[in-house]
């Protein structure tokens, strides 16, 4: 019997005997294959069979798991665990309570509990649960009557609250976890103080045609950080240190001429492509998700811009996002008009749940919507009157970046940018940027272009992109022949081009105009 305290929870298989999941396969054979493939713990979950059958199947499963040194738990049925003599049980909130289960099974048994909220998690930890099954992360056809979908943000919140109370209980998450999202879920749920000990899956293994391979592939994924992850500790930088590094970052981008793949709206395609060329990157404007895997392999970055949305575009966005995430290609989301319509509110939610974005960039209304605020009503793509003080903006940007483990940029007359640890306010730019179409969208293109060649510290890359863009706007607006928006656009493209040239010539004077402060 595996010692209760030394259990490896990293790949936790929950079985399912229904034909919808198992198909025509034999449960015992699937579990044998999964154990051979490397699952580290098994829970026998059977909501439909008669008790006599459940006991018999559990006995057979126990022979398989015991031989492999993998613990077997029974879902809900303390009586079955006792009959079989296996390692323990998993109880849901509506099943037998944890303390009674512990009393019946004794001190050596493993008892795990389902937790959907901070309160349920704390209570179970206080009552001595060995581990928590935290969920439901994503909606799943495997279990339709789940309480609430908490996403990676909900899991992270529960982990933080456990850490604050010094609970060392082990944790796995469950609900819709599969090969495509396992690494990201482990990455994005981690709080600075506590991270998951593993993932629990049903269909990703039980419904797989080759459960052994499905298990060993998942083990491999769990053991490696996602391709887009960067080293955890970033240097703290004063605003002047930060600004001093910018010209080199722009020079690197301009000399490498990275590909910048834009899935962007109809309005700005031409302007964004011209901006990309001016700053020294190589734009490709493709909204076809099917060609994203080929493009992702070319070493560039991806911009997903939600403007001029269409019914079929979300699938294309998700395909492209998966392709770039798979190779660690930098990604930026511009949730244009996120708070304007139901389609866009759903779109931003689906995109943030469906993949990893290195940078989330938007105006106040967009960032508030993306961060989960209810009732934000944007009039079209404009942010509308500001609802937040500068302190509130800083707090929201910092908190959202910490939660998503990425960089969040809220644009406005002062831009607020954070990676959750380091937060800056940038006060460059010019009001003429607000008088032309697509200036926000082309800023996304600029930042993504810089990120393509500066991957280790994406906050630095994003600040570099902002400063190049906004200082170019100031220089353009200051030209004598610029009389308004019409003359501003060509002057702006010229200034972007000139800043690129100056940076390539190692003339970083242009950055002296940066107005950056720490927040
Ligand atoms: N419990 P799949 S979700 C058994 O939220 C179970 O507590 C859940 O199945 C919870 O890995 C779930 O196929 C089913 O999405 C998970």
From TrEMBL:
Pathway: Cofactor biosynthesis; thiamine diphosphate biosynthesis; 4-methyl-5-(2-phosphoethyl)-thiazole from 5-(2-hydroxyethyl)-4-methylthiazole: step 1/1; Cofactor biosynthesis; thiamine diphosphate biosynthesis; thiamine phosphate from 4-amino-2-methyl-5-diphosphomethylpyrimidine and 4-methyl-5-(2-phosphoethyl)-thiazole: step 1/1
Family: In the N-terminal section; belongs to the thiamine-phosphate synthase family. In the C-terminal section; belongs to the Thz kinase family.
InterPro entries (alphabetical): Aldolase_TIM, Hyethyz_kinase, Ribokinase-like, ThiamineP_synth_sf, ThiamineP_synth_TenI, TMP_synthase
Gene Ontology molecular function terms on file: ATP binding; hydroxyethylthiazole kinase activity; magnesium ion binding; thiamine-phosphate diphosphorylase activity
Keyword Iron included in the entry's annotation: no
NCBIfam families according to UniProt: PRK09355.1, thiE, thiM
Annotated function: Condenses 4-methyl-5-(beta-hydroxyethyl)thiazole monophosphate (THZ-P) and 2-methyl-4-amino-5-hydroxymethyl pyrimidine pyrophosphate (HMP-PP) to form thiamine monophosphate (TMP).
Highest taxon listed in the record's lineage: Eukaryota
Alphabetical UniProt keywords: ATP-binding, Kinase, Magnesium, Metal-binding, Nucleotide-binding, Thiamine biosynthesis, Transferase
Record-given protein name: Thiamine biosynthetic bifunctional enzyme
PANTHER family, A to Z: THIAMINE BIOSYNTHETIC BIFUNCTIONAL ENZYME, THIAMINE-PHOSPHATE PYROPHOSPHORYLASE
Cited Pfam families: HK, TMP-TENI
HAMAP family the record matches: Thz_kinase, TMP_synthase
């Amino acid at each position: 019997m595996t010692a209760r305290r030394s259990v490896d929870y990293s790949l936790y298989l929950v079985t399912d005997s229904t034909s919808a999941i198992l198909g025509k396969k034999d449960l015992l054979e699937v579990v044998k294959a999964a154990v051979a493939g490397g699952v580290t713990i098994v829970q026998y979950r059977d909501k439909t069979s008669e008790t006599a059958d459940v006991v018999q199947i559990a006995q057979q499963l126990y022979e398989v798991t015991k031989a492999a040194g993998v613990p077997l738990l029974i879902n809900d049925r303390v009586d079955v665990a006792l009959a079989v003599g296996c390692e323990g049980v998993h109880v849901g909130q509506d099943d037998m309570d944890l303390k009674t289960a512990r009393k019946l099974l004794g001190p050596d048994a493993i008892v795990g509990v389902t937790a959907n909220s901070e309160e349920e998690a704390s209570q179970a930890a206080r009552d001595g649960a060995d581990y928590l099954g935290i969920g439901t992360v994503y909606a799943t056809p495997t279990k339709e009557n789940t309480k609430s979908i908490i996403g990676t943000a909900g899991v992270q919140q529960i982990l933080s609250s456990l850490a604050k109370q010094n609970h060392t209980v082990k944790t796995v998450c469950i609900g819709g976890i599969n090969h495509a999202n396992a690494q990201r879920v482990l990455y994005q749920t981690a709080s600075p103080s506590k991270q998951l000990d593993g993932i629990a899956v049903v269909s990703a293994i039980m419904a797989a045609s080759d459960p052994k391979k499905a298990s060993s592939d998942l083990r491999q994924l769990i053991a490696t950080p996602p391709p887009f992850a960067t080293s955890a500790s970033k240097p703290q930088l004063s605003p002047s240190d930060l600004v001093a590094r910018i010209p080199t970052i722009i020079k690197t981008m301009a000399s490498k001429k990275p590909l910048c793949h834009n899935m962007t709206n109809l309005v700005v395609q031409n302007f964004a492509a011209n901006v990309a060329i001016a700053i020294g990157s190589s734009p490709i404007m493709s909204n076809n998700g099917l060609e994203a895997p080929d493009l992702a392999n070319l070493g560039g970055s991806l911009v997903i811009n939600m403007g001029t949305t269409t019914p079929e575009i979300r699938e294309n966005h998700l395909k492209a996002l998966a392709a770039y995430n798979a190779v660690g290609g930098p990604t930026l989301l511009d949730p244009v008009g996120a708070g304007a319509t139901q389609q866009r509110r759903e779109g931003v939610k689906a995109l943030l749940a469906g993949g990893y974005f290195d940078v989330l960039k938007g105006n106040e209304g967009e960032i508030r919507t993306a961060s989960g605020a209810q009732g934000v009503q944007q009039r079209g793509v404009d942010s509308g009157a500001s609802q937040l003080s500068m302190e509130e903006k800083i707090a929201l940007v910092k908190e959202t970046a910490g939660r998503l483990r990425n960089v969040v940029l809220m644009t406005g007359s002062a831009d607020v940018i954070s990676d959750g640890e380091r937060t800056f306010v940038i006060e460059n730019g010019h009001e003429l940027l607000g008088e032309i179409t697509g200036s926000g969208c082309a800023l996304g293109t600029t930042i993504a272009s810089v990120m393509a060649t500066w991957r280790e510290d994406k906050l630095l890359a994003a600040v570099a992109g902002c400063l190049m863009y906004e200082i170019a706007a100031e220089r353009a607006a200051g030209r004598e022949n610029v009389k308004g928006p019409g003359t501003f656009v060509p002057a702006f493209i010229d200034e972007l081009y000139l800043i690129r040239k100056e940076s390539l010539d190692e003339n970083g004077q242009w950055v002296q105009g940066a107005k950056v402060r720490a927040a």
